[in-house]
UniProtKB/TrEMBL annotation:
<feature type="transmembrane region" description="Helical">
    <location>
        <begin position="77"/>
        <end position="96"/>
    </location>
</feature>
<dbReference type="InterPro" id="IPR006694">
    <property type="entry name" value="Fatty_acid_hydroxylase"/>
</dbReference>
<dbReference type="InterPro" id="IPR050307">
    <property type="entry name" value="Sterol_Desaturase_Related"/>
</dbReference>
<keyword id="KW-1133">Transmembrane helix</keyword>
<feature type="transmembrane region" description="Helical">
    <location>
        <begin position="38"/>
        <end position="57"/>
    </location>
</feature>
<keyword id="KW-0472">Membrane</keyword>
<feature type="domain" description="Fatty acid hydroxylase">
    <location>
        <begin position="84"/>
        <end position="218"/>
    </location>
</feature>
<keyword id="KW-0812">Transmembrane</keyword>
<protein>
    <submittedName>
        <fullName>Sterol desaturase/sphingolipid hydroxylase (Fatty acid hydroxylase superfamily)</fullName>
    </submittedName>
</protein>
<dbReference type="Pfam" id="PF04116">
    <property type="entry name" value="FA_hydroxylase"/>
</dbReference>
<feature type="transmembrane region" description="Helical">
    <location>
        <begin position="133"/>
        <end position="166"/>
    </location>
</feature>
Length: 225
């Protein structure tokens, strides 16, 4: 499973880095930073793969977890509802653990690895200290024991997680201006929002939604490129 996570990372980040080189040539000039981002990300892939591998094995072999394969096992509205619930739960976990990581001692020991990317590139998607990777690695494997989800819906959650992890660090905005600066952008997090976290540090902690940042007064608005 770690190998799958590593290949998924290399393909997605590599694909978006290639796209960036075409669209914004010269944006990723710091090769030493990119080498460091890839190193930490591959170490994180190893950590992400462990709980995911154990849970996938338990699901196949022993029927652990609440992952189901018959789409009619629950009402059809549950398919989108479960996706949203997983994203909201992951977002809440990320917000509070991320905010804790900005406490000075945890920051210098752990989270500084992620912020060493100034500004981050598409390769920084999983550039975390191994102990921070561990806090991220357990979220989805824990949720599948708590909240029923169809296997395809889980695939969509993982795809969104991968896509947003990469694009939020890409150094330019992929999504249309109308979305980012419109009504949806008031609640959704894209690169323009997360870039500001990398610039100003103690604000914009969220992952997918601006909900917790808004509730807790840590949303400082969108950054700019
Ligand atoms: Zn980041
Ligand atoms: Zn941070």
């Amino acid at each position: 499973m770690s190998a799958i996570v590593a290949v998924r990372y290399l393909l997605t980040s590599g694909g978006f880095a290639f796209w960036t080189a075409k669209r914004h040539p010269g944006l990723y000039a710091n090769r030493r930073q990119i080498a460091r981002e890839i190193g930490w990300s591959l170490a994180s892939a190893l950590i992400y793969g462990l709980p995911a591998g154990i849970v996938a094995w338990g699901w196949r072999q022993h029927g652990w977890t609440r992952i189901y394969t018959d789409p009619h096992a629950y009402p059809l509205w549950w398919l989108p509802a479960s996706i949203l619930l997983y994203l909201l739960a992951h977002d809440a976990w990320f917000y509070w653990t991320h905010r804790a990581m900005h406490e000075p001692r945890l920051f210098s020991r752990i989270h500084a690895v992620h912020h060493a990317s100034r500004p981050p590139t598409a390769w920084a998607a999983m550039s975390f200290h191994w102990s921070e990777a561990l806090t991220g690695a357990i979220v989805i494997p824990a949720l599948v024991f708590l909240i029923p989800i169809h296997v395809a819906a889980l695939g969509i959650v993982l795809a969104i997680m991968t896509l947003m992890g990469v694009t939020n660090h890409m150094g330019w905005e992929l999504f249309p201006r109308a979305l980012v600066h419109g009504r949806a952008g008031e609640w959704l997090i894209t690169a323009t929002h997360h870039q500001r976290h990398h610039r100003d540090y103690r604000c914009n902690y969220g992952l997918y939604f601006r909900l917790w940042d808004r509730l807790c007064g840590t949303d400082k608005g969108l950054g700019g490129f």
